[in-house]
Amino acid sequence: MNKVLQFTLADVMQATCVSLASKENTVLTPGLPPEKVYVIPNVIDTTMFKPAPERLSRDDIVIVVLSLLAEVIREGV
């Protein structure tokens, strides 16, 4: 799973996490610089998300991923 995370986040410009622990894991596991990882604790601060002042060029690619990365522990397996 760590290799998948490293590959997935290799070209990320910024990442947002929901807790400081999640930020720490995101910085340590794939090796993202801490200044590229932001924390919004379990809520969305809508003041941080505004439309771009100018329309993006057609050459820009913006990918937004909303997901939950959780470790599942099975007992007795």
**Classification by helices and strands:** alpha+beta
Major sheet: size, sense and barrel closure? 2 strands, parallel
Shape: globular
Could you tell me the radius of gyration in angstroms? 15 Å
List the strand order in the largest sheet.
1-2
Query: What is the count of DSSP helices, taking H or I runs of 4+ residues?
Result: 2
Average pLDDT rating? 76
Given as residue ranges, the uncertain stretches (5+ residues, pLDDT < 50) are none
Element-level helix/strand string: HEHE
**DSSP helix fraction:** 10-25%
Strand content: 5-15%
Number of strands: 2
Q: How far apart are the termini?
A: 19 Å
How is the topology of this model organized?
Blueprint: H1 2-8, E1 15-17, H2 20-28, E2 37-39
Parallel strand pairs: 1-2
What's a quick, concise take on this entry?
The chain has 77 residues and is α+β, with helices and mostly antiparallel strands. The protein has two helices and two strands; from the N terminus they run H-E-H-E. The longest helix is centred in the first third of the chain and has 9 residues, at 20-28.
Would you kindly provide a written description of the structure presented here, covering whatever features stand out?
The protein has 77 residues and is α+β, with helices and mostly antiparallel strands. It has 2 helices and 2 strands; from the N terminus they run αβαβ. Strands 1-2 form a two-stranded parallel sheet. The model has no long low-confidence stretch (mean pLDDT 76).
